[in-house]
Every structure is written in C-alpha cells, then in structure tokens.
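To the wet lab folks,

You asked to see what we're planning to order before we commit. Fair enough. Below is the target structure as tokens, and below that is the sequence we designed to fit it. If anything looks off to you, flag it before the synthesis order goes out.
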C-alpha cells in the first residue's frame, strides 16, 4: 500500500522526466552549457527548481518553476539571479512575478497524486525527443 509520500515521489519522477523532455533542445537554464562535463547518477541533466521544493513545497509541480539544469548547477549551487534572468527570457516577467508571489499551501490527496501522475506520464511521453 503506497503512502501519500510514495505517490509524491512517483509524481516527482514523472514531472522531472517531462521537464527534461520539454527542455531537451535547450541549454542549462543556469550556466547555458549544452554539453555538461559532470554527469552523475541518472545522467547529465536534472529538472532544477527555481524556487526550491524544500522552501516552497506548494510550487514543486509548477511547470514555470522548473527547467532543465545540468547536474553541476543543480547540485553544487547556481546563481539564482542568472536563473531568474533566463526564465524571464523563456516565459516572461509576468509569469515569473506570478511564480514569486505567495501561493497557498497544497495538501495533496492520494487521488490528486494519481491524477497528476497520469498527467505527467502523458506529457513526458508526448514531449519525448526524437
């Protein structure tokens, strides 16, 4: 029997896969590299959150808050100012400012997470690079 925490992990994995697929042809949002030298567990790319999941758990599955990022930038720190400048170019200042506003906390139910899992599985599949 899976817990809500188990379901969150499953959704996060599919959400991250979708983000990496969506941004496949783009460079790292932070350092702009297209060929990272550092590759760790799971490959060279992560789905890096602009506003962290720890500090902003209500924004963990917001697509405007997450972009393809090399493992070095995601794991060893990056300039949040450069990240912000890049996402303004990608999605516009209005959406970034909306993202930075306070959002109400999210209390995901098992049913919510099962639905999100299906959504992000479909989106990841639809955005799979050729």
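Sequence we intend to order:
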């Amino acid at each position: 029997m899976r817990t809500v925490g188990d379901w969150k992990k499953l959704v996060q994995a599919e959400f991250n896969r979708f983000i990496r697929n969506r941004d496949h042809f783009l460079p790292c949002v932070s350092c702009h590299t297209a060929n990272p030298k550092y590759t760790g567990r799971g490959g060279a790319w992560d789905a890096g959150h602009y506003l962290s999941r720890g500090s902003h758990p209500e924004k963990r599955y917001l697509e405007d808050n997450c972009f393809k990022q090399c493992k070095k930038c995601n794991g060893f720190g990056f300039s949040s100012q450069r990240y912000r400048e890049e996402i303004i170019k990608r999605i516009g200042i209005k959406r970034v400012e909306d993202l930075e506003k306070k959002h109400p906390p999210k209390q995901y139910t098992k049913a919510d997470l099962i639905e999100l899992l299906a959504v992000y599985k479909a989106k990841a599949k639809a955005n799979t690079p050729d």
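Structural context that might help your review: Residues 4-126 form one domain. The beta strands are 45-49, 66-70.

Thanks,
Computational group
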